[in-house]
Structures are given as structure tokens and as C-alpha cells.
What we know:
By secondary structure, this protein is mostly helical. The chain has a domain at about 1-55: Multidrug-efflux Transporter Regulator, Chain: A, Domain 2 (Orthogonal Bundle). The protein is about 70% helix and about 5% strand. The chain is built from five helices and two strands. The protein has helices at about 5-10, 15-20, 40-55, 60-70, 80-120; strands at about 30, 35. A two-stranded antiparallel ribbon has the order 1-2. A hairpin with a 5-residue loop joins strand 1 (about 30) and strand 2. Helix 3 crosses helix 4 (about 60-70). The radius of gyration is 20 Å and the shape is flat. It comes from Streptomyces gilvosporeus.
Amino acid sequence: MKISEASRISGVSARSLRHYEDEGLIVPGRFSNGFRDYCQSTIDRVLVIRSLLESGLPVRLIREVLPGLTDGSDAGTEVVCAEFLHEVQGYRDRLAARIAVLSDQQAALDAYLREARRTDL
């Protein structure tokens, strides 16, 4: 599929798709006229990339962990350096902390709404 359709299906802008390619995160095929050709496995990979970016993981780390997450191999279980694992753990911990803060905020809003509805009666 062409980039416009890949953008529509994945929910990622064409500009982002080109950026992912520039960063070496995806490698779309090419039509004979030079246009990019995105297959479903590339779209699936884009969805993983987008999720990792939204979690706060930088492109540099995504590039390292992505093969093991998307190719179905055991690449993610290879021996990796302790420093890299420490970085990934740090991002994971920050994500968990953000989730906890958001959960607290959601609970506070729920309590506010319950109280507001009670006073409206």
C-alpha cells in the first residue's frame, strides 16, 4: 500500500512514517516508480513503534529493542549490556510512575463527579 493508505490505517502521519524510515526503524518496499510500498507487517511494526514512543522510550532505545519485539525471533533474549537494561528499566519505572499519577488523578475526578452529582439532587 502507498504511504497515504499506510498513514490512514496506522493512524501515523506520512511525515512520521518517513521519519521512522530515516531513523532505520522501518524499511518499506518500493514500487517500480520509487513510491514507498507498505505491507501489513510494516504497519504492525509502526504500531509497536508508536506505542513505544508514546511510553517515552527514545528512538535510540527503540531501534535496539524493536527487532526482538516484532520479528518473532529470540533476538530480544540475546545477551545485552547491563547499561542498556538499566536504561530500559528506568523508562519502564518512569512509565509506571506516570500511570500511578494518572490513576490518582482519575480517582480524584471520579470522587469530584460523584460529589457533584450528589449535590445536584
